[in-house]
Amino acid sequence: MINAMARTILFNKPFGVLSQFTDAGSPQARPTLSAFIDVPGVYPAGRLDRDSEGLLVLTDDGRLQAQIADPQHKLAKTYLVQVEGAPDDTDLQPLRAGVTLKDGPTRPAQVRLIAPPALWVRVPPVRFRKSVPDRWIEITLREGRNRQVRRMTAHIGFPTLRLVRWRVGDWAIDDLIPGQWRDA
Q1: Count of domains observed in the chain
Q2: Which listed residue, of 54, 107, 126, 183, carries a Cα 20 to 30 Å from 37's Cα?
Q3: Would the pTM of this model clear 0.85, i.e. be above it?
């Protein structure tokens, strides 16, 4: 149950931004959420790697944070993933069955090939190699391990070039541009 008084923010995290408000331990300053969101008391519900983009949900409701971040709740998270190489539907089958990574087996994922999505230009751009094709896939997970999507695509031989989280549960990026946020 979502607390009606809670504040929930949907943020389109740009590439290179940390999913935290401070970076005190780093010898070199890196961009954090504080450069974009000046709302007291909200914290990220889950994480999104520095080199990943897309939807990050922030809230001041601890229960909601747990529901989003804790894998036991099995909240669906959907990613648009550009991979190196040209996988076909058969290549994606192991992801649908679940693959075994160094930290154990993954839950089965929903995976499908998609047309290149109409996304914003990433800064810096993805490095392309003319001699190596790339394809886009959509992956929906119901767990969230460290760099899991990247490790899963690499496991089947198609390294991730670009990763955009598009949806968390019923929330989606929709028309948010990178660095923009809105109340849910």
Answers
A1: 2
A2: 126
A3: yes
